[in-house]
Amino acid sequence: MVRVSVLNNMVNAERRGKRQVLVRPSSKVVVKFLSVMQRHGYIGEFEIIDDHRSGKIVVQLNGRLNKTGVISPRYNIQANQIESWVNLLLPARSFGYIILTTSSGIMDHEEARRKNVGGKLLGYVY
């Protein structure tokens, strides 16, 4: 449920034209999810603030975020099933990324296909 609120806060702030957004609580999964989004240019820098509670993250927005979503429950997929999930969740073939957690860490669907690993679906971004 944490990922749902974090991603919704970011999309809503993006639609309102905000330049940055404060999301909380922080977790390792959220930080890795944000780092994949940052690597593909959907968000700018983000800073983790340790408040000795659940933690906060300040995310710089750059106007490229259209939609994000969480896939719940976290479906197990094999490497050869990635393409069918891409067709199901993303609006176009080379537009957006599905983010999944694998034994090799949290990565997007293209990297998982290159490494030929499957895992659990976390969410998507485009």
From TrEMBL:
Molecular function via GO: structural constituent of ribosome
Gene Ontology CC annotations of this record: cytosolic small ribosomal subunit
One Pfam short name: Ribosomal_S8
The keyword Ribonucleoprotein appears for this protein: yes
Keyword Ribosomal protein: yes
Keywords assigned by UniProt, alphabetized: Ribonucleoprotein, Ribosomal protein
Entries under InterPro entries matching the protein: Ribosomal_uS8, Ribosomal_uS8_CS, Ribosomal_uS8_sf
Signal peptide: none
One BP annotation, GO: translation
UniProt record similarity statement: Belongs to the universal ribosomal protein uS8 family.
PANTHER family found in the cross-reference section: 40S RIBOSOMAL PROTEIN S15A
Protein name per UniProt: 40S ribosomal protein S22
Organism for this UniProt entry: Pleurotus ostreatus (Oyster mushroom)
